[in-house]
Amino acid sequence: MLKSTEPILIREPSAGVRRQKSRASKMIGDYIDTAVRIAGVGFLADLIQRLVLSVVEHLQDYRYYLPEDGLSTILQRSFTYNKRSVFIILAFVVLALIRLSATGNGRALVPTAAYLAYMPLYWLFQCLGGSKLRYSHWIREPHGLDYASGMAANYFHGFLNLSLPERQGDGLRRRMAVYEATHNITFGLDRLIILIPDEMFVKGKLESDLLEKAEPLQTVNIQRAGVNRPFKHDVYRLKRMIDGKFYYFVIEGATPMLSFFESLQSQISATWQMREMKREIWLKFYKHLKYLLYTWPETRNLVEPIIYNSHDANGNLVDVGELLITRMENKKKKNA
Hints:
- InterPro entries: STING, STING_C_sf, STING_LBD, STING_TM.
- The chain is elongated.
- The chain contains twelve helices and seven strands.
- With 336 residues, the protein is of the alpha/beta class.
- The longest helix has 46 residues, at 15-60.
- It folds into two domains: 18-128, no CATH class; 147-335, Stimulator of interferon genes protein (Rossmann fold), CATH 3.40.50.
- The protein has helices spanning 15-60, 70-78, 83-103, 113-116, 119-126, 132-140, 147-163, 172-183, 255-264, 272-276, 278-295, 320-335; strands at 187-197, 211-213, 220-224, 227-231, 234-238, 248-253, 303-308.
- Helix 7 packs parallel to helix 11.
């Protein structure tokens, strides 16, 4: 069989197809140029706003700063950008450079007077403020400046990290060991249990059909800010026998959460933000407290924070004793 020697013809795109591709590429190019211009207007408007706020801060609230570095501190705070903002700015700069290298027309990227005339719209939209969801996101961020993180840090540094670690032959573990030997009992968990219910309310004496209050651990006195402060931990006995024993537990409620609950009921301290974000604050308190406890070596294995819903799906009050039994059995399974 003879092969054909006729040349293969490659058809070039028609003039109409070329015009469509050219029109599409021009539209994309124009869109990029416009986006870069708008971004430039927004960035310039933001710079002006930051400068004005710096001047107002310096004139009105200079007392919040030290005289020797007040102005520099204000400028640093005003013109510091977070990582996300830096990435966005760099992305537009790179996009502008790519476009400039492709067209060589830098004027198409510089905002004209017509664009700058829309700059007040940026400031106008800034006055709209953020949604309530932004409060939630801000609380969740790990900056340590929110109400929940502050309560957790104060609770950790002002109480738990003072009363629990072993210092001068005394600490939670030694007191629990002495208690077991003296009363001939066994603790279900070898650590302090901190209850953090979503209601944020824990009575002075726990209400449970499965627990009864026993003699507390030995009180320890620690010098703190010029005061010989007593630290005391309550003990509860489980009334249900498990594996032939009545187990005991060192338990307390998270006192900062109780104070927060009480502040929510007060007309002079509660704000709508606190009421609106109370569950966010509850969760962040638990997470930050757990982080502090487990990060610091002296408290890492001394506390068992338990976060839970105060009521079950049927609206019945959850029995703390059931939570302790479940937690104890889970610990036994892990150690088995």
